[in-house]
Write a structure and sequence with these properties.
This is L-rhamnose mutarotase. It comes from Streptomyces fuscus. The chain is an alpha+beta fold and about 110 residues long. The protein has a single domain, classed as Alpha-Beta Plaits (2-Layer Sandwich). It has a 3-stranded antiparallel β-sheet, with no helix packed on it. The longest helix has 10 residues. The chain is globular and about 35 Å long. The model has no long low-confidence stretch (mean pLDDT about 95).
Length: about 110
C-alpha cells in the first residue's frame, strides 16, 4: 500500500465555506473515491489555509486516473477550484503533488 501526502492552500476568505462543503461530501463523490482506490483519505486544514491531504492506495497514478474518468469528479473539481490559491489554471486534483516520505514508524 502506498501512503500519499500532499499540500494545497485554501484561500483565507473561503476557510469556513471549505469546511462546510466537506462536512457533507456528495455520496456519489465518496463512492467514486472508494471505487477508484482512495483509502483512509483525510484532509486537515490549518487556520492559515494550509491543507494537508493523506490517503493510502495501491497506485496513486491509477487512483487519480480512475477519478479523472468519472463525471462526479469533473463537477466537484469545477466547484472547488475557486477555494484554492496558486493553482495556475490547474484543477485542485491536478495540483496534488505527493510529498516525499522521509520517515515512517510501522
Amino acid at each position: 500500500m502506498q501512503r500519499v501526502c500532499f499540500v494545497l492552500k485554501v484561500r483565507a476568505d473561503r476557510l469556513d465555506e471549505y469546511r462546510e462543503r466537506h462536512a457533507e461530501v456528495w455520496p456519489e463523490m465518496r463512492a467514486a473515491l472508494s471505487a477508484t482506490g482512495w483509502h483512509n483519505y483525510s484532509l486537515f486544514l490549518r487556520e492559515d489555509g494550509l491543507l494537508v491531504g493523506y490517503l493510502e492506495t495501491e497506485d496513486f497514478a491509477a487512483a487519480l486516473a480512475g477519478m479523472e474518468a468519472t463525471e462526479v469528479n469533473a463537477r466537484w473539481q469545477a466547484e472547488m477550484a475557486s477555494f484554492f490559491e496558486q493553482l495556475d489554471g490547474a484543477r485542485p486534483d491536478e495540483s496534488m503533488k505527493p510529498l516525499t516520505e522521509v520517515f515512517h514508524l510501522a
